[in-house]
Design brief:
globular, single chain, three-stranded parallel β-sheet, alpha/beta, 38% helix
Length: 109
């Protein structure tokens, strides 16, 4: 059973990484690939929001969101994350989100 599970995961990874993945349907529902907790240099990650969204789209994700640390964002950066998310949104193809990871020195994340 472990070998079959490994082969299934390896196959999905190869399809996904090669861009050849097909839309998977489970019980009549579609499966989508994406990530909602990402950081850029606006907080403790690397790169810019446009680079992050472009990389996610180029690597075949169906949805992507930034969640910068709230205590490290200024008003201009917060506004920019919305502008970039809106500009990268492609209805039915690539869904974008922006949010924040609420962070305080007293309570953590």
């Amino acid at each position: 059973m472990k070998k079959l599970y490994f082969l299934l995961i390896a196959g999905i990874f190869l399809m996904y990484s090669s861009g050849l993945r097909a839309q998977i349907s489970i019980g009549g529902y579609n499966a989508y690939y994406g990530h909602l907790h990402n950081h850029t240099a606006y907080s403790d990650g690397q790169g810019t929001p446009p680079q992050a969204y472009a990389s996610a789209k180029a690597n075949g994700l169906d949805f992507f969101g930034l969640a910068e640390h709230s205590n490290l964002l200024n008003a201009t950066e917060w506004s920019r994350t919305l502008t970039v998310a809106d500009s990268m949104y492609l209805p039915g193809v690539f869904t974008t989100f922006r949010g924040f990871e609420w962070t305080t020195s007293a309570y953590g994340h």
